[in-house]
From TrEMBL:
InterPro entries: FAD-linked_oxidoreductase-like, Proline_DH_dom, Proline_oxidase. This is Proline dehydrogenase. Residues 10-62 form the Proline dehydrogenase domain. It catalyses: L-proline + a quinone = (S)-1-pyrroline-5-carboxylate + a quinol + H(+). It comes from Saguinus oedipus (Cotton-top tamarin). It is an enzyme of class 1 (oxidoreductase).
Length: 91
């Protein structure tokens, strides 16, 4: 982003992800000031299920990282408990 001179304040780049997928990527982007949106498909279950199953198949390699993501979340929780900074306040 820096090489292309795309700074967070310029709002030229937006990121979107399916809710619950790869939060270890979207959280740092949001903390850096980039707009990050999480979306939730909705509708009748029989209409939404094929979409979600395709996303699951496409991202099956990402699901292997769920254990790593859980460990990262625990580390962040412990860091916040140690420092007393429970809420993130963007600069």
């Amino acid at each position: 982003m820096e090489e292309l001179c795309l700074h967070p304040a310029s709002h030229q780049v937006y990121f979107g992800q399916l809710l619950g997928m790869c939060d270890q990527i979207s959280f740092p982007l949001g903390q850096a000031g980039y707009p990050v949106y999480k979306y939730v498909p909705y509708g009748p279950v029989m209409d939404v299920l094929p979409y979600l199953s395709r996303r699951a198949l496409e991202n099956s390699s990402l699901m292997k990282g769920a254990r790593w993501e859980r460990q990262l979340l625990w580390l962040e929780l412990l860091r916040r408990l140690r420092t007393g900074s429970f809420f993130h306040r963007p600069a």
